[in-house]
Amino acid sequence: MKKALFFVFVFSIFSQSCVHKKDGKTEKTSGKINTIAVIIDDQLWNGEIGDTIRNKFASPVIGLPQEEPLFTINQFPVKLLEGFMTNSRNIIVIKKEAKNRFEIVENEYASPQNVIHISGKTTPIILDLIEKNTQVIISKMRQTEIEENQRAIDTAAIDTKKIRKKFKADLRVPKGYNYVLERRKFIWLKKEIPSGNTSILIYQIPLGALNRNLPVTQSIIRTRDSIGNLYIHGRSRNTQMVTEDSYTPYLFHINIKGKETYETKGTWELKNDFMSGPFINYNIIDRANKRILVLEGFCYDPSKEKRDLMFELEAIIKSIEFIKKPQKKKQ
Questions:
Q1: Which pLDDT tens digit goes with each residue over 214-247?
Q2: Could you report the per-residue pLDDT of 139-155, keeping only the tens digit for each?
Q3: Which of 98, 130, 198, 283 could form a disulfide with 299 if both were Cys (CB 3.0 to 4.6 A apart)?
Q4: Beta strand 90-96 with 35-39: parallel, antiparallel or unpaired?
Q5: What share of the chain is helix, strand, coil (3-state, %, to 5)?
Q6: For residues 261 and 284, is the Cβ–Cβ distance under 8 A?
Q7: What's this model's pTM, rounded to 2 decimal places?
Q8: Is residue 286 within 8 Å of residue 259, measured between CB atoms?
Q9: What is the pLDDT of residues 7-16, one digit of tens each?
Q10: CA–CA separation, 297 and 312 (whole Å)
């Protein structure tokens, strides 16, 4: 009797996120951002395979002051979901069966959705498939989450006319952000949240501003600290924002909208004050306009988790679109 009641209770929880397939219609995905539903039997989950999944997909996010997982993982037994489909955006289905398989299926049960199927005859085969494909899976899921963030912003975005006019570029910025400081080549947007705030900085520097005599990271830090000294201050004197020097920021060479970009992740602090938090900084090499366009997001939310706040800032920044100059008509 107790087992039956337990099953009814668990099933009622899962039924909120699992729906029958109906007439081939695609359901809309839902759920919290950066979450993975792992469909796997308890025996495998409690062994080496489960440990590997947790180590790979719940590893600490780099650049945050406190340790937070890359993804939040929810595990469900395979039998409990037979005959149903989940409307989670990211799903990993792991089974031990005769056929060795790794496949990413988009929108299998709902949209947008990634369903990763991994199966093998033995534990070592499954572990090898996970090991070989971890980065592909993470990249795919992160891109889906960024795009979902951007879709949500589109339904409630602020007017970005000032950004377009000043920088010949546009961003999708959600409601709640306000322009708090504007200069000739600088904009600061801020959103107040219950226990702190999040900010977006937009500014441009000359194309040759990355000092060739310095390592790229050091040059970027020097620039962002000079901007902090100019514009980002605490309430007391001599409390400008600086890059925290206890930890070297992480640097990545990436591409945004076809343009070479330096992505820097680290932590900031107010000099001679107690405020601090994480930042993510993008130096976009915009040769067409002979400049480096810098976009930075940072947050202050003491004693709270910051992973999803920073992820939203990343999604906002990566929504950038460069406005092309109108071509002159040929005579």
A1: 899 999 999 999 999 999 998 888 899 999 988 8
A2: 999 999 999 999 988 88
A3: 198
A4: parallel
A5: 30, 35, 35
A6: yes
A7: 0.88
A8: yes
A9: 433 444 444 4
A10: 9
